[in-house]
Amino acid sequence: MKIIQDLIPVGNNRRGTPLTVQYITIHETGNSSVGSDAAMHNRFIRSVDNIARPASWHFTVDDHSIYQHVPTSEQAIHAGTAAGNKMSIGIEMCINSDGDFEQTKRNTQWLVGELLTEFNLTKDKIRQHFDWSGKNCPATIRRTNTWQAFIDGIGDDDMNLKLGDKGVYVRIWQLFLKQQGFNIGTGGAAADGVTEEFNAATANATMLYNKKKGIAIDVGQVSVQTVLRASEDLIFTIKLRDNEAARMAAVLGNQGTLITDQTEQITGLKTKIASAITELQK
Ligand SMILES: [Zn+2]
Questions:
Q1: What is the DSSP code (8-state) at residue 128?
Q2: Consecutive H or E run containing 148
Q3: Does the first or last residue of the chain, that is N or C, have fewer Cβ atoms within 10 Å of its Cβ?
Q4: Could you give the 3-state DSSP secondary structure of residue 24?
Q5: Per-residue pLDDT tens over the stretch 216-231
Q6: Are strands 3-5 and 66-68 parallel, antiparallel or unpaired?
Q7: Residues whose beta carbons lie less than 5 angstroms from ion ligand 1
Q8: Which CATH fold topology does 3-154 show?
Q9: How far is the CA of 135 from the centre of ligand 1 (A)?
């Protein structure tokens, strides 16, 4: 995702105090009003009332955007304790009633994953606002007992397939799209459109698939959610090319036709394929 950087001016809620990032703190805005998305909070944070509080945080995430208000090299005022402000990046998740909170969580997971990498931190350094000050925040995640699931979902983005990707996973995805009746084009050398390259036609078909499954991703990208939803679809059968079939069959234990049942996720499938590739390379 793209992060929209719109830094607030230095002042009462941005004091320029250096931050050494040791933790990441997760918040929810507590504002379920219609329209209270990241753009709205980007306006709110610079309002006179908010500057007077004062309060600030580094990022606001909703179901379609991420705004950055304070550089990660500077402390913000969000944790309710000096220690929390001194050591952590603050991320606010929007809970606006006209938003898709599940997508907001996924976008936040992506952002946290990026920050963990950037600051060389592990997942045990992710904190709830509650952990610093005892405030019931992030309230929705706490109420629904989904904190661990939220943490577990961070870092899954490396499963994504996107424009420009190549290889066997792309091939499998293209075959799946074809089987589901999507047009993946007939470009390249492959008459059937199965080019093993995540090209524009594949991206377009993927976007349509995401749309059909109600996944709020506006680009043609195979996300974790796409994979999960795909696993709900009809049993899908991948016919391997003849020269792959025999050797893959030996690894996968069936007759050259790879079949997943409805409960098996493509993630599991990928593991199998990865080991199959390892075998093929021997
Ligand atoms: Zn909070």
A1: E
A2: helix 147-152
A3: C
A4: strand
A5: 665 677 776 676 666 5
A6: parallel
A7: 27, 129, 137
A8: Lysozyme-like (3.40.80)
A9: 7
